């Protein structure tokens, strides 16, 4: 018996979570997984209910659960409150408290969506890219940080970008090993591109050298390359298929993954897994709470549904169940169903659907006896 904590959060969080939970329940029944679901509060809704973006009770629930599924947090309602109480701080704290240092963000193009991206289809066709983002260190957590008043009365904001060798080594290990696994599955050479600003920042000079040392000592079968973050942003658009696994720090990974999302058609398609050293994880879409479309049944629930597949794959080692969900997503795309963010209005035969209808269509595919297509 395993327990999953669901944290819907704010904005479109509850809408996408409702659909993902149904998918999880049906998959649980179909594959006899023995899952129990529990829900909790995080983000702005938690601030409203308890005064804290990550109440102690939620943290306790998360520690006791086998995995966590998260929607999204944040929104204009909480943007002006004291910094330590903002919804985003709740998300950062749960990542840090649970030790979820390895964030895997998969940018895989479903071929049905080749025309939904703003990038030419020949540049992205066949794309399957993994960004390994360090998630509990770097400039997001470095001290000192704050806003101070200088002697002349002017204010100054400051943050500190820090990485210890041990932090770089543990995320490097994840990247090298995933590159090896992916190479075994694809038959292609294992490749890791480490993204840094070693030309400017000492912290990333250490990052780069540590990656080189690791490759030489333990991963000589993996082809390691290095790229400055600014060039990497450009190369992702110019020729994204040159990359297989990209490994980088917290902030560069945040930025590169939103960019990579557009290669798949929409940020609404990008799932993620955030793992600790034992493979326990929190799973969440890469996008935010999308306040501009919240409550309108317009959100794309597929990134969250695909995050459920990642949960079954990484935490529960249920590859078959994970693939069933990914196949169901592919099947509804085959049927031409599109939420607004992935709708290409020039393509004939597509049907615009809302968040709920998209979720229900995935469910229908999953519920069908094997081989049937409803
Ligand atoms: P966002 O990702 O919420 O939205 C950016 C754009 O993408 C918006 O136009 C939105 O409508 C669209 N979009 C996002 N997800 C979508 C989906 N599933 N389907 C269709 N369209 C989608 O980023 P933002 O606007 O910069 O941030 C909004 C709030 O979310 C902020 O408070 C931010 O801090 C927070 N945020 C939270 C997370 C998280 O919880 N992991 C991630 C990013 C941003
Ligand atoms: C993400 C988000 C978060 C981040 C914010 C909301 C703290 O943008 O999950 O990508 O920057 O990590
Ligand atoms: Mn982000």
UniProtKB/TrEMBL annotation:
Its EC number is 1.1.1.85. Substrate binds at residues 95, 105, 133, 230. It catalyses: (2R,3S)-3-isopropylmalate + NAD(+) = 4-methyl-2-oxopentanoate + CO2 + NADH. The keyword Manganese applies. Mg(2+) binds at residues 230, 254, 258. The record marks 140, 197 as: Important for catalysis. Residues 3-362 form the Isopropylmalate dehydrogenase-like domain. It comes from the Bacteria. InterPro entries: IsoCit/isopropylmalate_DH_CS, IsoPropMal-DH-like_dom, Isopropylmalate_DH. Its cofactor is Mn(2+); Mg(2+). SUPFAM superfamilies: Isocitrate/Isopropylmalate dehydrogenase-like (SSF53659). Keywords: Amino-acid biosynthesis, Branched-chain amino acid biosynthesis, Cytoplasm, Leucine biosynthesis, Magnesium, Manganese, Metal-binding, NAD, Oxidoreductase. Pathway: Amino-acid biosynthesis; L-leucine biosynthesis; L-leucine from 3-methyl-2-oxobutanoate: step 3/4. NAD(+) binds at residues 75-88, 288-300. Binds 1 Mg(2+) or Mn(2+) ion per subunit. Gene3D superfamilies: Isopropylmalate Dehydrogenase. It holds the Pfam family Iso_dh. It is an enzyme of class 1 (oxidoreductase). It is found in: Cytoplasm. One of its GO terms (molecular function) is 3-isopropylmalate dehydrogenase activity. Homodimer. Belongs to the isocitrate and isopropylmalate dehydrogenases family. LeuB type 1 subfamily. Catalyzes the oxidation of 3-carboxy-2-hydroxy-4-methylpentanoate (3-isopropylmalate) to 3-carboxy-4-methyl-2-oxopentanoate. The product decarboxylates to 4-methyl-2 oxopentanoate. This is 3-isopropylmalate dehydrogenase. It comes from Psychrobacter coccoides. The lineage of its organism: Bacteria, Pseudomonadati, Pseudomonadota, Gammaproteobacteria, Moraxellales. The gene is leuB.
């Amino acid at each position: 018996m395993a327990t999953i904590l669901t944290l819907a959060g704010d904005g479109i969080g509850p809408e996408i979570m409702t659909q993902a939970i149904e998918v999880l329940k049906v998959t649980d029944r179909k594959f006899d997984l023995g899952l129990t679901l529990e829900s909790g509060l995080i983000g702005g809704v938690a601030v409203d209910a308890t005064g804290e973006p990550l109440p102690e009770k939620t943290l306790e629930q998360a520690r006791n659960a086998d995995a966590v599924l998260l929607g999204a947090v944040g929104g204009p309602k909480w943007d002006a409150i004291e910094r330590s109480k903002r919804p985003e701080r709740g998300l950062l704290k749960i990542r840090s408290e649970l030790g979820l240092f390895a964030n895997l963000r998969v940018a895989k193009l479903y071929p049905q969506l080749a025309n939904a991206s703003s990038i030419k289809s020949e540049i992205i066709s066949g794309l399957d890219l993994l960004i390994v983002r360090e998630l509990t260190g770097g400039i997001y957590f470095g001290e000192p940080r704050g806003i101070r008043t200088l002697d002349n009365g002017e204010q100054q904001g400051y943050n500190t970008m820090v990485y210890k060798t041990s932090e770089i080594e543990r995320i490097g290990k994840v990247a090298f090993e995933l590159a090896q696994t992916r190479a075994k599955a694809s038959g292609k050479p294992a490749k890791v591109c480490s993204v840094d600003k070693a030309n400017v920042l000492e912290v990333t000079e250490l990052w780069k050298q540590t990656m080189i040392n690791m490759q030489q000592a333990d991963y000589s079968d993996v082809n390691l390359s290095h790229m400055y973050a600014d060039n990497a942003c450009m190369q992702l658009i110019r020729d994204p298929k040159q990359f297989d696994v990209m490994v980088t720090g917290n902030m560069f990974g945040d930025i590169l993954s939103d960019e990579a999302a557009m290669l798949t058609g929409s940020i609404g398609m990008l799932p993620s897994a955030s793992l600790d050293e034992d493979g326990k994880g929190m799973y969440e879409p890469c996008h935010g709470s999308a306040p501009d479309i919240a409550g309108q049944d317009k959100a794309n629930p597929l990134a969250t549904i695909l995050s459920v597949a990642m949960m079954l794959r990484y935490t529960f080692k249920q590859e078959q169940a994970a693939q069933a969900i990914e196949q169901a997503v592919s099947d509804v795309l085959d049927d031409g169903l599109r939420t607004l963010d992935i709708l290409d209005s020039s393509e004939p035969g597509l049907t615009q659907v809302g968040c709920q209808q998209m979720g229900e269509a995935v469910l229908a595919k999953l519920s069908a006896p094997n081989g049937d297509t409803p």
